[in-house]
């Protein structure tokens, strides 16, 4: 699943901007990242490139949100970002030995 990523309307004013619109943009970016990580093309070069772009966008939006709320830089990655950076794709990381 390939979707265009638009940057229209994604800027915040120099005075800090309102957290509400940034939170909405962050939620949308995280949803797109999750969709991309879980799609059939996630293992392809094009899919990996899109995952990297979306991960960077999520991190940038988190930083903006933290700055707008006066909390400093965000440091905790989302589950989708963690799955994107996990070499196993976030699947099969544990083994049940009790079965």
Low-confidence stretches: 6-16
| Helical content band | 40-55%
Alpha-carbon distance between the two ends: 36 Å
Listing every helix as H and every strand as E from the N terminus to the C terminus, the arrangement reads HHH
Backbone CA Rg: 16 Å
Largest sheet: none
* SS class: mainly alpha
Query: Beta fraction of the residues?
Result: under 5%
Average pLDDT works out at 73
Beta strands, count:
0
* Shape assignment: globular
If helices are DSSP runs of H or I spanning 4 or more residues, what is the number of helices?
A: 3
Give the key terms.
99 residues; mainly alpha; 51% helix; globular
Question: What can you see in these coordinates?
Answer:
This protein is an all-alpha fold. 51% of the residues lie in helices and 0% in strands. It has three helices and no strands. It has helices at residues 19-37, 45-68, 79-85. α1 runs antiparallel to α2 and α1 runs parallel beside α3 (79-85). Mean pLDDT is 73; it is low at 6-16.
Please specify the SSE layout and strand pairing.
Blueprint: H1 19-37, H2 45-68, H3 79-85
């Amino acid at each position: 699943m390939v979707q265009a990523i638009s940057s229209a309307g994604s800027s915040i004013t120099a005075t800090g901007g309102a957290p509400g619109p940034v939170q909405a943009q962050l939620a949308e970016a995280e949803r797109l990242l999750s969709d991309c990580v879980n799609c059939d093309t996630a293992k392809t070069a094009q899919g990996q490139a899109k995952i990297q772009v979306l991960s960077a966008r999520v991190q940038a939006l988190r930083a903006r949100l933290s700055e707008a709320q006066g909390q400093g830089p965000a440091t905790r990655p989302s589950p989708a970002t963690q799955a994107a950076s996990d070499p196993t794709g976030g699947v099969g990381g544990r083994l049940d030995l009790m079965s």
